[in-house]
Specification:
CATH superfamily: Reverse transcriptase/Diguanylate cyclase domain
Radius of gyration: 18 Å
Helix content: 40-55%
CATH architecture: 2-Layer Sandwich
CATH topology: Alpha-Beta Plaits
Strand content: 5-15%
Number of domains: 1
Order of helices and strands: HHEHHEEHHEHHH
Number of strands: 4
Largest sheet: 4 strands, antiparallel
Shape: globular
Length: 208
C-alpha cells in the first residue's frame, strides 16, 4: 500500500506529457525552498537574500503551429522541448502549463541566469526535432530581490520580462535578444511582426 501511495504521489506531481515536474510540484518546491527557505531566512535574520533566479520559456506562435500541424505534432514538440530544457538546465525544469516552461536557478544572480538562459535557448535552437519545424521560444529572466515576498512575485517578474522582450516596440539591450537567438543560431531570420500573421512558425525564412 505504501508503494502504491508513493507511485500515486509521484504521478500527481508529474506532467504526463513531458515527464517533467508539473505546476503543483513547482509550487510546492517554491513554497519550501524559496518562501520558507530563502525569504524566511532573510526576514528572520536581516541577512542579504541568497541569489535565486527563474527563467520562463514560452513557445512562439504555438497556437498557429497546432492549427497548421495538428495537436499530435504539437504534443511531440512540447515533449521534445521539455527534454531539451531539462538536459540544458543544471537544476529543476518544470512545465508550468500549456506551452510554458520554467527553469529554476537557485544560487544564480541575474547575470548568471541570463547566461544560463542563453545556453538553454541555444540548446532549443540546436535540437533537430525542433529546428526542422522552425520552433523558437521567447524567454523571460528574473532574479529574487528585496521587494518580493512570494514566489508569485518572481514568476510575475519573469513573465513581464518575457512580454517586454517579445514586444516589437521596445528595443532590447545589446546582447540580450533571447527571442531571436533560436532563429539566428539556425542561420535563419525570424519574420517581422506583420509577416507572422501570414506565416507558420515552421517556415522561418533564410537570410538574403
Amino acid at each position: 500500500m505504501e508503494r502504491i501511495a508513493e507511485v500515486n504521489r509521484r504521478l500527481a506531481l508529474t506532467d504526463p506529457l513531458t515527464g517533467l515536474p508539473n505546476r503543483r510540484h513547482l509550487e510546492r518546491y517554491l513554497d519550501r525552498v524559496l518562501v520558507r527557505g530563502v525569504l524566511a531566512a532573510s526576514h528572520q535574520t536581516g541577512s542579504r537574500l541568497r541569489p535565486f533566479s527563474l527563467v520562463l520559456f514560452d513557445v512562439d506562435d504555438f497556437k498557429r503551429f497546432n492549427e497548421r500541424h495538428g495537436y499530435v505534432a504539437g504534443d511531440e514538440v512540447l515533449s521534445v522541448l521539455g527534454r531539451t530544457l531539462s538536459r540544458a538546465c543544471p537544476t529543476l525544469t518544470a512545465r508550468l502549463g500549456g506551452d510554458e516552461f520554467v527553469a529554476l536557478l537557485p544560487g544564480k544572480a541575474i547575470d548568471e541566469a541570463r547566461e544560463a538562459a542563453r545556453h538553454m535557448a541555444k540548446a532549443v535552437a540546436g535540437d533537430p526535432a525542433l529546428s526542422v519545424h522552425g520552433v523558437t521560444v521567447s524567454v523571460g529572466v528574473a532574479a529574487l530581490n528585496t521587494g518580493m515576498n512570494r514566489w508569485q512575485d518572481l514568476l510575475a517578474a519573469a513573465d513581464l520580462d518575457l512580454r517586454r522582450r517579445r514586444s516589437p516596440t521596445r528595443p532590447l539591450p545589446e546582447g540580450c535578444d533571447l527571442r531571436y537567438l533560436g532563429a539566428h543560431s539556425l542561420g535563419t531570420r525570424w519574420p517581422s511582426r506583420q509577416a507572422r500573421h501570414t506565416e507558420s512558425p515552421a517556415r522561418a525564412r533564410p537570410p538574403p
